[in-house]
Amino acid sequence: MNVVVLHQARALAALGHFVEILTRRSSPDVDAARTLGPRLRIRFLDAGPAHPLAKGEHESVVAEFSRRLRELGPYDVLHSHHWFSGMAALPVAGEHGVPHVQSFHSIAADATTPLSEGERPESPGRLEGEAHLARASDAVVAISAAEAHTVAVRLGGDPKRIVIVPPGVDAELFHPWSGSRRGSGYVVAAARLQPLKGLDLAIEAVAAVSPDVRPDLIVAGEASSDFDGYVDDLRTLADERGIAAKVHFIGPQSRPDLAALLRESRLVLVPSHSETYGLVALEASASGVPVIASASGGLREAVVDGETGIVLDSRDPGDWGRAIERVLRDPELGARFARAGRSRAEALSWPQSAVALSACYGALVDTRFEERRP
Length: 374
Hints:
Helix 7 links the parallel strand 9 and strand 10. The protein has two domains: 191 residues, Rossmann fold (3-Layer(aba) Sandwich), CATH 3.40.50; 161 residues, Rossmann fold (3-Layer(aba) Sandwich). The protein is globular. It has a six-stranded parallel sheet, with helices on both faces. Strands 4-5-6-7 form a four-stranded parallel sheet, with helices on both faces. With 374 residues, the protein is of the alpha/beta class. GO terms for molecular function: glycosyltransferase activity. It holds the Pfam family Glyco_transf_4. This is Glycosyltransferase. Keywords: Glycosyltransferase, Transferase.
């Protein structure tokens, strides 16, 4: 979500729009505002304590964030990128008579449903809040056709007000490696460390690969504070499968470090139970690396099965192990996936994404203008 927000904001500013990113102050050392570039600024609003909060605690500061938001502007459009911010911004947009646009990036599902249905709600109001925002916002911007379907069917959003704006990729930062790869190398799974991302399957899959080509697995990502002990569970699993020495947890990576990690890998694994898109899959393709992904949500759109990688409608570690082995043993297949992935990624840019988003905003502003004309 952070990547999408920042890159779309930069591209919108480059188109000539004035953009402000609004977020909560989580440190007393952060200035109230910071200029990120021409026509682009980020503001840190005082809502709740000036220190990091667990994700589930943010619902308690929604009302205060809304009060701070009322003091800003005027804006032509308010675009929220999480249900917390949506619940804060929707009433302010109504009071100011401007359109409210909602994006979700992940949509929660009831805790009694399978993980394939979506992220678990981190606080009590999420399920009802997301449904309210889908129905009450002037537009919902979805990142994929899969997410658009979920907004319409599960949340009850009006399909006529759902706009699909695919993400872009920085094809200069994420570019193919020019060196030569030897041996089994390593494969990467890059994600927030929580059960929804299915990293246990990545470990099981590598364990299922024949020892003569079994790669190391690099797990990159930040541990989620809402799932204490999950990383320990993953380490235990690797030990039980006899591959503890081949699984490496390297923590969160900067964007340049992630790009370097991806381009030097043999494969990128995206075993998520649910994804609205799966941006890391597109970044892997831009890096000239084949992707093996689960057939969940938007991953079917991020990865073209049989062209830029392999999409598996199975969570059997044996199936995943065989897919990994197939690519590692067939360099020509891997190279074909790499070329096609890079070609596709080059056609998907952040400026292109911003143009589509700008068109959505413009249509909403024009409609409001027509409604106000005598």
